[in-house]
Design goal:
about 425 residues, globular, 20 helices, mainly alpha, about 0% strand, Growth Hormone, Chain: A
């Protein structure tokens, strides 16, 4: 049965809670996509090679992943609100230091601290959803939040490119400093959502990560759905070089193509909401992995000819990957009755680690980056689909009622 469990948000209200969760969930794309148009220019500004400048992205994701593993279990012990407040203080301070960095190595170090603080947002956001919502309501809410979240990657590159017309890359980090302060204010207004806190020691609290990973239902689904981050973040890392250096577009025009891809991300969760009323969840998941496989072939075959063909051929991969997020997240949360913060941490960490792997792979010295991106999407769709077919019928997977399957029963009553 779907219920809203913790209704008391006297300062934020339910709409304010939705907005805060969406904002916190968008911290990863906000912290990366806003300065993507600046990356090619930063190589000239710092007189640094591409692989060194890309460390500001790659190390951000690695330490963001590690930070999630730290904050999530702590939120099970101390609560979501104090963890969020501590993380946002670190994030805002590090963003300010990034804006003042004197060389590329200082920027890399400050980005590490920015990642460590910002990861509290992702660790807390998903845990709050589990605290507050149950069942199919949670799945619908996750789809809504995911749809709202893609506003950040859609708007961020356009805003970042526009900022370059009157400021430098430093202005980007001033904006991120403001975002951290805004999230800090939201955290101050948040009423605690956790019901029962873990009472063990700090070491026992961190050990709950291992307990959650021993759950075969959670671990197998974690593998399946984390794979989707490989091609998604490899595109994030390579997009500016593909559009600006390979196709010769300006930073402003690149931002429009990137926004097009981000808007396609918006369609995925909305598409899932509609499809789930007509088809079984498992069928939708299989279709999404198949679409990703086909899209990878399209990118490989057509992507080199023009920026428009590249963008269009990538659309099936983008929509399919974002369509998988609501059912995947909900299924993983359903496997774990307790230790929600730890489960949320592992979900965020594994997704970002897989994404970091994709960013590392796409940063290698490929003769044709578009070809490599197409192969990544193809292999991810093929592997993810095979793993889903292998694991989904196993008895250790806790099944979640389908909205489509429940509709005839409601009509009969």
């Amino acid at each position: 049965m779907s219920t809203y469990k913790n209704k008391e948000q006297k300062r934020l209200g339910q709409k304010g809670l939705v907005a805060l969760i969406a904002f916190l969930s968008a911290f990863t794309p906000l912290s990366t996509d806003l300065y993507l148009p600046s990356l090619p220019g930063m190589t000239n500004y710092f007189h640094a090679p591409v692989n060194i400048v890309n460390l500001t992205l790659i190390l951000f994701f690695i330490f963001y992943s590690a930070g999630i593993l730290f904050w999530g279990p702590l939120s099970d012990k101390y609560g979501r609100r104090p963890v969020l407040l501590a993380g946002m203080i670190i994030y805002a301070s590090a963003s300010l230091m990034c804006a003042c960095a004197g060389n590329i190595y200082q920027l890399i170090i400050f980005r590490v601290f920015q990642a460590a603080g910002g990861s509290s947002a992702s660790a807390v956001a998903t845990a709050i959803v589990k605290d507050v919502y149950d069942g199919r309501k949670r799945e619908s809410f996750l789809a809504l939040v995911n749809s709202m979240v893609v506003v950040a990657p859609a708007v961020a590159p356009v805003l970042g490119a526009a900022m370059l017309t009157f400021t430098t890359w430093r202005g980007v980090f001033w904006i991120l400093t403001g975002a951290g302060l805004l999230a800090l204010a939201g955290g101050a207004a948040l009423e605690e959502t956790i019901g029962v806190r873990y009472t063990g020691t700090i070491f026992q609290t961190m050990g709950r990560l291992g307990t959650v990973l021993k759950n075969p239902g959670f671990a197998s689904l974690l593998l399946v759905f984390s794979l989707c981050s490989i091609p998604m973040l490899s595109f994030v890392a390579s997009s500016s070089y593909i559009y600006i250096k390979w196709f010769g577009l300006s930073e402003q025009v690149y931002s429009y193509f990137f926004a097009l891809n981000a808007l396609c991300l918006l369609l995925g969760p909305l598409l899932y909401i509609n499809l789930s009323r007509r088809f079984y969840r498992s069928s939708i998941i299989i279709a999404c992995f198949a679409a990703m496989t086909l899209g990878g072939l399209l990118v490989r075959g057509l992507g080199n000819f023009s920026p428009w063909l590249f963008a269009v051929s990538l659309i099936p991969c983008t929509i399919a990957g974002s369509c998988l997020r609501p059912p995947g997240t909900n299924l993983m949360l359903e496997q774990q009755r307790e230790d929600t913060g730890s489960a949320s941490s592992l979900m965020g960490c594994c997704a970002l680690l897989m994404g970091s792997l994709g960013m590392f792979l796409i940063s290698l010295d490929w003769a044709n980056t578009i070809f490599a991106l197409g192969i990544m999407n193809f292999l991810t769709g093929l592997t993810g689909g095979a793993f889903w077919l292998l694991f989904s019928k196993k008895p250790f997977i806790k099944q979640v009622p389908d909205a489509f399957a429940a509709a005839p029963a409601r009509q009969a009553r």
